[in-house]
Design brief:
The protein has five helices and four strands. The chain has 190 residues and is mainly alpha-helical. The protein is elongated, with a radius of gyration of 18 Å. Its EC number is 2.5.1.17. It is an enzyme of class 2 (transferase). Pathway: Cofactor biosynthesis; adenosylcobalamin biosynthesis; adenosylcobalamin from cob(II)yrinate a,c-diamide: step 2/7.
């Protein structure tokens, strides 16, 4: 159990932070950047939840919890040493990816196929979900970049890839099942 009774520690005043295994790294390290963007994505989900109906709110709450799991996964390097850890690190698992895929398929079954790209917007909820999509896509790019330097759980990358797709489809659902999507008109303002 985590107990946070003192919020500031002053240990980061020199530009370093502690990873989940206690190692100190620069705050601008790729690992910190990746899980920091996951945290940012989580905050955008919180904003979207303000506009969601109860069913979507419950799904977004599950995603927020998953994003904390993902941050916990990314802040613990040395996957090969997991078996020796005093407390086994929390890692993303295939079931979390599978759940997103199932939810995407269920939402997408309500929608007509796209015949144009859509602009991020429409309803307030859809606009927030598109912001969630773009921030989660950035988190994915940063996590993939991290994976070129260090070991990263493959399920973490897969989860982020599916998550941005989930937000895209959810945004279409939020736009009256795609009927209120704002279509891109190529060259409209030439």
């Amino acid at each position: 159990m985590i107990v946070l009774n003192k919020i500031y520690t002053k240990t980061g005043d020199d530009g370093e932070t502690a990873l989940g295994n206690g190692a100190r790294v620069a705050k601008h390290s790729m690992r910190v950047t990746a899980y920091g963007t996951v945290d940012e994505a989580n905050a955008t989900v919180g904003m979207a939840r303000l506009h969601a109906d109860p069913d979507l709110d419950a799904a977004l709450a599950r995603i927020q919890n998953d994003l904390f799991d993902l941050g916990a996964d990314l802040c613990r390097p040395d996957m090969e040493r997991d078996a020796d850890a005093e407390y086994p690190p929390l890692r993303m698992v295939k079931a979390q990816v599978d759940r997103l895929e199932s939810e995407i398929d269920a939402m997408n079954s309500r929608l007509e196929p796209l015949r144009s790209f859509i602009l991020p917007g429409g309803s307030a909820l859809a606009a927030h979900l598109h912001l969630c999509r773009t921030v989660s896509r950035r988190a994915e790019r940063e996590t993939v970049e991290l994976a070129t330097m260090e070991t990263v759980n493959p399920d973490a990358v897969k989860y982020l890839n599916r998550l941005s797709d989930w937000f895209f489809v959810a945004a279409r659902v939020a736009n009256d099942d795609g009927r209120a999507d704002v279509l891109w008109v190529p060259g409209a303002n030439r």
